[in-house]
Amino acid sequence: MGGIIIAGFGFRASADLVSLTNAFERAADGLTVAGFAAPADKIYHPALTALARHCDLPLYAVDTKTIKATDTATRSAIVLEKRQTGSVAEAAALALFNSTAKLICIRQISADGRAACALATGESL
């Protein structure tokens, strides 16, 4: 698979490292990921920063306005109400690209339901 792959995350404040790792593993399924993206207000969440350190990947903050403006493949009624997008994970993954990007994995939800991860690919950030 060509291009850069970014993993986008959406998660509850109660998500822990196990939650985020589980969602990431479900989405990545062995693919090489270049970085993690998440909403700017959650970029310093301890579990997310721990996962980024463990995977030795950069974290990218995505502002609320961009998340709201990004079309997603899936639509959660709860996420629509709270974040005005169908999937925070999908929006975060897609939003980083300067070029056309596409989802290669829709949001995958952790076993405990506290985190979601989606993957997008594109040519440039």
What features would you describe in this structure?
The protein has helices spanning 17-28, 46-55, 64-69, 77-83, 88-95, and strands at residues 4-11, 35-39, 59-62, 102-109, 115-122. With 125 residues, the protein is α/β, with parallel strands linked by helices. A five-stranded mixed beta sheet has the order 3-2-1-5-4, with helices on both faces. Helix 1 links the parallel strand 1 (4-11) and strand 2 (35-39). Helix 1 (17-28) crosses helix 2 (46-55). The mean pLDDT is 94.
Report the span from N to C terminus: 17 Å
Structural class: alpha/beta
- The tally of helices reads 5
Radius of gyration: 13 Å
CATH fold description: Nucleotidyltransferase, domain 5
Structure keywords:
single chain, 125 residues, alpha/beta, Nucleotidyltransferase, domain 5, five-stranded mixed beta sheet, 26% strand
Task: Describe this structure in a few short sentences.
The protein is α/β, with parallel strands linked by helices. It is built from five helices and five strands.
Secondary structure blueprint with pairings:
Layout: E1 4-11, H1 17-28, E2 35-39, H2 46-55, E3 59-62, H3 64-69, H4 77-83, H5 88-95, E4 102-109, E5 115-122
Parallel strand pairs: 1-2, 2-3
Antiparallel strand pairs: 1-5, 4-5
